[in-house]
Specification:
The protein has one domain: Aminopeptidase (3-Layer(aba) Sandwich), CATH 3.40.630.30. It is 30% helix and 29% strand. It has 7 helices and 9 strands; from the N terminus they run E-H-H-E-E-H-E-H-E-H-H-E-H-E-E-E. Strands 1, 2, 3, 4, 5, 6, 7, 8 and 9 form a 9-stranded mixed sheet that branches. The protein is globular and about 55 Å long.
Length: 242
Amino acid sequence: MEIVTRTDRPELHEAASAAFRERWPAFVFHDDVSKRYMGRVEEYFARYDVMVLDEGRVVAGGWGVPMAWDGTLSDLPSGYDDALVRAVEGHEAGVEPTSLSFMAVAVGSSHDKRGMAGAVLEELARRAHSDGLAHVVAPLRPTWKHRYPMVSMAEYAGWARPDGLSVDPWIRTHQRMGARVLGPARRSMVIEGSVADWESWADMVFPVTRAYVVPGALNLVLIDRERDRGVYVEENLWVQHS
């Protein structure tokens, strides 16, 4: 196995992106904040965008952003979108970062259950600590939360197995690395589109105005046929690594 950054191997960019498309629902890639900021994230924070190679093939990848955070719950970003904004705009304003926020990790299905996600997280954390960043946090998108879209993230985060670890595999991965739950990121990502957009993204029909369970969505999606608008506000879960 070899760990490289995307800037080391730019020809593998598309292969790395494919791993994320395989794992995440289509609507996630229509977040307007990401569209506005990701180009600058890739330019400013290439050091925190890594890939794991197995015999030259991309089998996992992940990235994070350095940002200013004072270590208190009240100063946490509202979630994924806000962390992107804080990191990029802080960098442009010359604000010294204090923390790394893991933003996303994906593992190719051919390499499931081989510890690849943990290897990505450990590498990103190592880079953060070597750069003098004091904190490592993450707005997690728990793996199984989409199965319970009408359950709040606060309640879901409290569900535990007999061994005390979370029922959710992705939360458990972080717990085993020493992370602790800080609390819900209540407005982590906001995705809006027309009814036709949402029908395309979800591969569903939305015949009336109401809140819908959508495959892959952690919360309900509100469809307003009269206004031709669909809005999805995703809750994530903030955790902090030791």
